[in-house]
Amino acid sequence: MKAAVIVFPGSNCDRDVSVALEHATGHKPAMVWHRDSDLPQVDLIVVPGGFSYGDYLRSGAMAAQSPVMREVVARAKSGTRVLGICNGFQILTEAKLLPGALMRNAGLKFLCRTVDLRVENADSAFTAGYAKDQLIRLPVAHHDGNYFADADTLARIEDNGMVAFRYVTPDGAIDASGNPNGSANAVAGLFNEGRTVLGLMPHPERAAEPLHGNTDGKPLLDGLVEALS
Amino acid sequence: MKANVHVTLKRGVLDPQGKAIGHALQSLGFDGVDDVRQGKFIELELAETDQDAARAAVEAMCQKLLANTVIEDYRIDFVG
């Protein structure tokens, strides 16, 4: 599997995800600067976490308009897998590759902790390494992770199995206590309709090595390698 | 020509920052504030002198970048 990681001014998880991809695939991904519009031919494009453009205007708004994102959108439309993590998820919604928006956390505070998640749909290249309804734990670190979409969009998302991960309590229940940021339908990770694009607020690349103290993010990367190699 | 753009969260979209401001006003003793909605104010200095053309351009700017119409409404006012 060949991968590319997009780097914006203010990205700060680009190297973490690069290391995680290198460990999963055996070779370094291409690092593509945001001003470049020539993106190498790859199987997976990662839009990493961070604070691209200082979160000016809205998180992800400026990055979504950058030259490289025009190419990412074109590739996504032709079926290339695109993974957006944290700020990457925000960028993918701003670029309209995923429906809805990520708003300020309902509690207004920046959240930095490990959350409980349930795998809602294991039928994708991104989630094939998990079982449906599997409970996992991944770290989150965000201020704007409160997923919002209007009622019609939420119905479409649910009807099409587009929710990849949901925030849950440690025993797997969906309620307010298990939802750290107020996300609609407890959405933590979302596919496009074809399940070729995934955006998620939690950070699988920060839970991919025994040294991290948690390897629950590793099946996401390993599943991608298996599906795309 | 100068355009002022106000961007606010849509009605029906929860505005937790507006709510926090409302609570703070209440705790300062400002009674009678029923609701607070906060947003952004953007000033644009435009070379365009025709107001209709300017409005069309600023509309496009709002749709494309200045507002996220999934969650936000915008209002454009021309001054001067």
Automatic annotation (TrEMBL), chain A:
Supply the alphabetized keyword list.
Answer: ATP-binding, Cytoplasm, Glutamine amidotransferase, Hydrolase, Ligase, Nucleotide-binding, Purine biosynthesis
Biological or metabolic pathway of the protein = Purine metabolism; IMP biosynthesis via de novo pathway; 5-amino-1-(5-phospho-D-ribosyl)imidazole from N(2)-formyl-N(1)-(5-phospho-D-ribosyl)glycinamide: step 1/2
Which is a Gene Ontology cellular component entry for this protein?
cytoplasm
Intracellular or extracellular location(s): Cytoplasm
EC number(s) stated in the UniProt entry for this protein:
6.3.5.3, 3.5.1.2
Q: Name one GO molecular function term.
A: phosphoribosylformylglycinamidine synthase activity
Give the catalysed reaction(s), semicolon-separated.
Answer: N(2)-formyl-N(1)-(5-phospho-beta-D-ribosyl)glycinamide + L-glutamine + ATP + H2O = 2-formamido-N(1)-(5-O-phospho-beta-D-ribosyl)acetamidine + L-glutamate + ADP + phosphate + H(+); L-glutamine + H2O = L-glutamate + NH4(+)
On the tree of life, the source organism's domain of life is Bacteria
Location of the active site: C86, H203, E205
Q: Which PROSITE patterns does this entry report, sorted A to Z?
A: GATASE_TYPE_1 (PS51273)
PANTHER family in the record, alphabetically?
Answer: PHOSPHORIBOSYLFORMYLGLYCINAMIDINE SYNTHASE SUBUNIT PURQ
Q: What does this protein do?
A: Part of the phosphoribosylformylglycinamidine synthase complex involved in the purines biosynthetic pathway. Catalyzes the ATP-dependent conversion of formylglycinamide ribonucleotide (FGAR) and glutamine to yield formylglycinamidine ribonucleotide (FGAM) and glutamate. The FGAM synthase complex is composed of three subunits. PurQ produces an ammonia molecule by converting glutamine to glutamate. PurL transfers the ammonia molecule to FGAR to form FGAM in an ATP-dependent manner.
Subunit structure, interactors included: Part of the FGAM synthase complex composed of 1 PurL, 1 PurQ and 2 PurS subunits.
Protein name according to UniProt: Phosphoribosylformylglycinamidine synthase subunit PurQ
Species of the source: Skermanella stibiiresistens SB22
Annotated gene: purQ
TrEMBL record, chain B:
Keyword Ion transport in the entry? The reply is: no
Q: What class of enzyme is it?
A: ligase
Keywords (A to Z) from UniProt: ATP-binding, Cytoplasm, Ligase, Nucleotide-binding, Purine biosynthesis
Keyword Ligase on entry: yes
Q: Which GO terms describe its molecular function?
A: ATP binding; phosphoribosylformylglycinamidine synthase activity
Which reaction does this enzyme catalyse, per its entry? N(2)-formyl-N(1)-(5-phospho-beta-D-ribosyl)glycinamide + L-glutamine + ATP + H2O = 2-formamido-N(1)-(5-O-phospho-beta-D-ribosyl)acetamidine + L-glutamate + ADP + phosphate + H(+)
One biological process term from GO is: 'de novo' IMP biosynthetic process
State the source organism's domain of life: Bacteria
Any matching Pfam family:
PurS
Q: Could you tell me the EC number(s) of this protein?
A: 6.3.5.3
**What does the entry list under GO cellular component?**
cytoplasm
Q: List the pathway annotation.
A: Purine metabolism; IMP biosynthesis via de novo pathway; 5-amino-1-(5-phospho-D-ribosyl)imidazole from N(2)-formyl-N(1)-(5-phospho-D-ribosyl)glycinamide: step 1/2
What does the UniProt entry say about where the protein is found?
Answer: Cytoplasm
Main location, first listed in the record:
cytoplasm
Q: Which family does it belong to?
A: Belongs to the PurS family.
What role is this protein assigned? Answer: Part of the phosphoribosylformylglycinamidine synthase complex involved in the purines biosynthetic pathway. Catalyzes the ATP-dependent conversion of formylglycinamide ribonucleotide (FGAR) and glutamine to yield formylglycinamidine ribonucleotide (FGAM) and glutamate. The FGAM synthase complex is composed of three subunits. PurQ produces an ammonia molecule by converting glutamine to glutamate. PurL transfers the ammonia molecule to FGAR to form FGAM in an ATP-dependent manner.
Subunit structure and binding partners:
Part of the FGAM synthase complex composed of 1 PurL, 1 PurQ and 2 PurS subunits.
Q: What protein name applies here?
A: Phosphoribosylformylglycinamidine synthase subunit PurS
What is the source species? Skermanella stibiiresistens SB22
**Gene, per the UniProt record:** purS
